[in-house]
Specification:
Elements (H helix, E strand, L loop, with lengths): L1 H4 L6 H33 L4 H49 L3 H7 L1 H26 L1 H16 L7 H42 L1 H6 L3 H27 L1 H25 L5 H42 L23 E8 L9 E8 L4 E6 L5 H8 L7 E6 L2 E2 L5 H6 L1 E4 L8 E2 H6 L7 H10 L3 H6 L7 E2 L8 H13 L5 E5 L7 H14 L4 E5 L3 H4 L4 E6 L2 E6 L1 H7 L1 H10 L2 H4 L1
Parallel strand pairs: 3-10, 3-11, 6-9, 9-10
Antiparallel strand pairs: 1-2, 1-4, 4-5, 7-8, 11-12
């Protein structure tokens, strides 16, 4: 938890201001019981009305001063805790943006969302309580003890019994609650995971009438979270009644001993009233501390989860001394040399000894069965993962020696699942190149065979795209994603099964337009359809992570059994002949 608080270091002046305002408020609170004691012992007992009014007016001024200090301190504490939450969200967001796919898989999307929202909110609330109460409570407690001893040292001996009892109660309850609050955050992750899967997979769930199954699945996760939350809160709920019981018993004991002292004329009534108020202030301060400590276990668990993200060492980082790519003249040459890759903790490699060269101005196609490693190859080219063996060279430079930004600037990438963002059509295309002119945007859309349907949309290139592209079809999404890559005017284009939602006519027109428009670029095309890749300059056939065939379409039909099997399932006898 304290590691998180280091981010408040630049705001130390505000913390000092809160400290002094809190100290001033504590002093004012400690002065009031003594003034009240004098009003009783001097003003009421001796019938001095002027003294009562004079002391009452002073008490009013002190109360106004203390209240003003409290309001200003609370305002600054609220501002500071909100600023800390902002800093943490920014740090988590920036850190997550730098994650490789390996770190995403490690944490999970649902957990990252929970940590960025719920966990940071927990920390913000506790920091607010700490700034408001954790400074005030020790001052009130120490000051109250001093004033109580000054009021009557013998009566103050009751604190020797009260304070250890209170501290023991807080310690036991905190010790019981901490593991439960850690568990709550993990179970909240699970609830968010199930809920997120239901939102993203709603069409599949309804298509297969699995609503009841998903309801049971969510209910189980929700029930598990509820039971743990109830158990944790039941433990914390014991704190206040137990402290109230201790406070009540202490007040009774003080009144009993105090009555005997008053009867023996060794203690004034006003002094007894003041002493009770100081004891109440001490116990109230301890209660405030207990409220903070009751929140700390959950906030501590949240802080650890946030720090786990911020302090995670990225598996993919830029080299200390990065190289630069040579100027782009035409396209760029991409070469794999003995590349192998295995996911962390996996028993078998996904790719083994992959070697090939994709030359500028040529189309290199990759085909293979499901799970053969096609998409993983592209993930290695974009350095979403690093190979466990071998090297990938772009224009003769190992991509691990390039800055990640420079590498990805050189690549136009179209993912397997087309992802669009809320905004306009032109904003989505310009996502590939923020400085693209209107002419460049239109040219990219035309090459991607997207201009026709864009012009039919209300507003054309300024038409709104809903979140996730839900207001356009799958084929339209793919064409916009392709236009987004083409607007970069990159030296290398990676298409990860990016034509799968297109009809054969559009597919053919798009490939023809690409061939004319990007004649000098290096194109690597992952596809499932033979018709999409049969005109490629080089076709690589993957099977179980290995290249089992390479060549042109007609060559592979004659020499590669895996390619023959794929072609036989898609082409007619005339096309195979």
């Amino acid at each position: 938890m304290f590691k998180v608080l280091r981010y408040l270091k630049p705001y130390w002046l505000i913390i000092v201001l809160i400290f002094f305002l809190t100290f001033a408020n504590a002093i004012s609170q400690l002065l009031l019981p003594n003034l009240m004691s004098n009003i009783v012992d001097v003003g009421i007992v001796q019938g001095d009305v002027n003294y009562i009014f004079r002391s009452g007016f002073i008490m009013l001024l002190i109360a106004i001063f203390g209240t003003t200090c409290t309001v200003i301190a609370a305002w600054n504490a609220s501002k500071l805790s909100s600023r800390l939450a902002t800093i943490l969200r920014e740090k988590v967001f920036h850190k997550v943006e730098s994650f490789s796919l390996q770190e995403f898989n490690q944490f999970g999307t649902a957990s990252l969302i929970t940590r960025t929202t719920n966990d940071i909110t927990q920390i913000q609330q506790v920091v607010l309580m700490m700034l408001r109460m954790m400074l005030m409570a020790p001052m009130m407690m120490i000051g109250g003890i001093i004033m109580a001893i000054a009021q009557d040292a013998r009566m103050a001996l009751v604190l020797i019994v009260i304070l250890p009892l209170v501290l023991l109660t807080i310690t036991i309850i905190g010790w019981l609650g901490l593991p439960l609050f850690k568990s709550i955050q993990k179970k909240l992750d699970q609830v968010n995971l199930v809920f997120r899967e239901n939102l993203t997979g709603v069409r599949v769930i309804r298509a297969f009438n699995r609503q009841k199954h998903e309801q049971k699945r969510f209910a189980a996760a929700n029930r598990d979270l509820t039971q743990t939350s109830i158990q944790a809160n039941q433990i914390i709920a014991l704190l206040m009644p137990m402290l109230s019981l201790i406070l009540s018993l202490s007040t009774i004991a003080i009144l009993w001993f105090g009555a005997q002292r008053i009867d023996a004329n060794t203690l004034a009534v006003g002094d007894l009233m003041a002493f009770i108020q100081y004891i109440n202030q001490i116990l109230f301060a301890v209660t405030m501390l207990s409220m903070v400590f009751s929140m700390i276990p959950r906030a501590s668990a949240s802080a650890n989860r946030i720090l786990a993200i911020i302090e995670t060492e990225n598996s993919i980082v830029d080299a200390q001394t990065t190289q630069q790519l040579p100027p782009l003249v035409q396209g760029r040459t991409l070469r794999f040399e003995g590349v192998s890759f295995a996911y962390p903790k996996a028993l078998d490699p996904v790719l083994s000894e992959i070697s090939f060269e994709a030359k500028a101005g040529e189309v290199t196609a990759i085909i293979g069965g499901t799970g053969s490693g096609k998409s993983t190859l592209l993930n290695l080219m974009t350095r979403f993962y690093d190979p466990t063996q071998g090297q990938i060279l772009l224009d003769g430079v190992d991509i691990r020696e390039l800055a990640q930004t420079e590498l990805r600037e050189a690549i136009g990438y179209v993912p397997q699942k087309a992802v669009l963002f809320s905004g306009t059509v032109s904003e989505n295309i310009r996502y590939g190149k923020a400085t693209a002119s209107d002419a460049e945007v239109m040219q990219a859309a035309q090459t991607a065979q997207a201009q026709d349907f864009i012009e039919k949309m209300k507003g054309g290139f300024e038409a709104a795209i809903a979140q996730g592209g839900s207001n356009v079809s799958g084929g339209q999404k793919q064409r916009l994603a392709i236009a987004r890559a083409l607007v970069r005017q990159a030296g290398v284009y990676l298409f990860d099964d990016s034509f799968s939602a297109l009809d054969f006519k559009t597919d053919a027109k798009l490939r023809q337009a690409l061939k004319q428009q990007e004649q000098q670029a290096t194109m690597i095309l992952v596809a499932q359809r033979i018709s999409t890749i049969k005109d490629a300059d080089q076709i690589l056939v993957l099977d179980q992570g290995k290249i089992v065939g390479r060549g042109k379409h007609h060559e592979l039909l004659a020499t590669c059994p895996v390619y023959q099997e794929i072609a036989g399932s898609q082409l007619s006898q005339e096309e195979l002949a």
